[in-house]
Batch of 2 targets.
Target 1
Amino acid sequence: MPRRAVTHKRGIEPLRQRKFILSVAGNMKVLITFALEGEFAPWRAIREFRSESRGGARVYVCTIDGAEIGVAVTGVGPKQAALEASRAIRNECDSLSFCISSGLAGALRPEYRIAQVLAARSVFSEFPHPDLTSQLLPSSQPLVSFAAECGATVVERFHTAERAVARVEEKHHLGRTSDAVEMESFEIFREAAACGIPAVAIRAVSDGLDEDLPLDMNQLFTDEGQVSIPRVMGQVALHPQAIPGLVKLRQNSKQAAESLAQFLDRYVATVIERTRTLEPKATAATR
């Protein structure tokens, strides 16, 4: 019988925890998603990833401490995240141990600094989904705990937006209920939950609360969620005063991506090590 998506927060979490415990007894397989190649590039420079095609999805694969690590670059935005996550996750539904929604995010609280790594206890979608009874999905608590152990700042909630949030006023409004804003995590969680796969959202801060983005970033992306250089050049020609802000954003994003790469490399190795120490107990629990 095919697995059915769990549609309520209280139903998702026990299933995730059970899958997490059962997965540690076998060979671990991990999926990590980024929105853009640039977010993934610093980690790709650390590890020898090879490119593979799986079920129509392009996945970059390497091995860390005997575990298979796969990376999918989804493109920016919830629509592209849902499409690519569906391809990457459902193709490995019965074999994935856990999933990480990763990349960059905008801070919604003044205490978060550029390049700080945040791990969210939950992710929120600003629009309801007909197949879900909640706009809030939880991270796996063991995975959040491991993130804290590795030095991430644990926060309550990421806000998954439909569009790039550019203005300080809007950031302050979202900051009443959330800690950081991004555009993909809820859809990644939704696909993972459909397969009972534990998931966690881990992001590095690329822009602070009290700074506008230099351009309307929504004008820069293609329909596939990729940055269009011609569109960037066109917007710069129309708004040359944005150039210093774009340079600063690029520098901040590079710093954040490098910080995230170092964290993920440490984090994945830690989760593998910790779960292997649980293997005898997990094996006994499944008998």
Target 2
Amino acid sequence: MDKIHIRHQIINNCNYRCPICSYEGEEIPEIMGGCGMNKTLLSDENVISLMEEVVNIVGSNNISYAITGGEPTLRKDLLIKMVKRLNDLDIEDIWLNTNGFLLNSEYLDELKDAGLKHVKITISSMDFLKYAKAIGYQGNISWAKKALKKVLYNTDCCIENGLKVDINIPLQERINDSYEDLEPYFNFSKRGVLVKVLVLEPSGWKGFPKRENYIPPIDVHDFLKSMGGKKISDFDFSRGGLYEFDTGNNEKVTIAGIYFCSPADAKNHPYAGRSFLVTSDGQIKKGMWGDEGKTKLKIEHTTVLERQLRSILN
């Protein structure tokens, strides 16, 4: 049976304001400072209840459950409760998508105690000036420099604590489009971290091309090949690949290249028909980017919820 992929957006607010952010295909908030909320969030209790309903209907076997946002670590109490409850429900593949800023050792200990085993941390650049631009803080370089230092420290804590760690690098011109930009990530690969260069194609996302400081995507395969990478296998996303780099010291590292498709291409994605988004205001949306079935469901309408989820499975 093919795996069912659930992305649960527990918040659409963020402490960063990255121009390239996909917001899980949802409407992008206009408030920039970090990014502000543009919809009413469900209470912690309702989020947990909705999550339990989804798992009950879909079944706990062969599920990938991603907790995402916005920045999900902003809802600390809820996040810890969700991870613990998902583990109680015997969901094995649970991961957190985060910018890593708030994930200090104390917070990490609580999440690990709750059962978290996998984090995906976005680090757009290892150069603080480029990092500042990538996260939308080019006007406050000193804060961005401290933020990057903090994120790298928190990432090390995740690795040292035995979590499975992925590092996501959203590919952007003039930010991380050279070998000098890519090379600092090799040390993470040597430590067993899955480093992924991502192309986020905005075509079709609401308001996305209108974002200030928007940078067009680069072809991920052309980029990794031009940097000296040799493709050694396909990756588990459409049009993705795993590339090997020779560091020159009889060592080789691998970097994954991933092309996230736009809604127009989503039907051709390997996860098409097996994926859905649970939004921060309690909607269930079918498809890779929630591009199908935009019916808002109230938490108590479990028969409606079940009917919609069953339609995804059939």
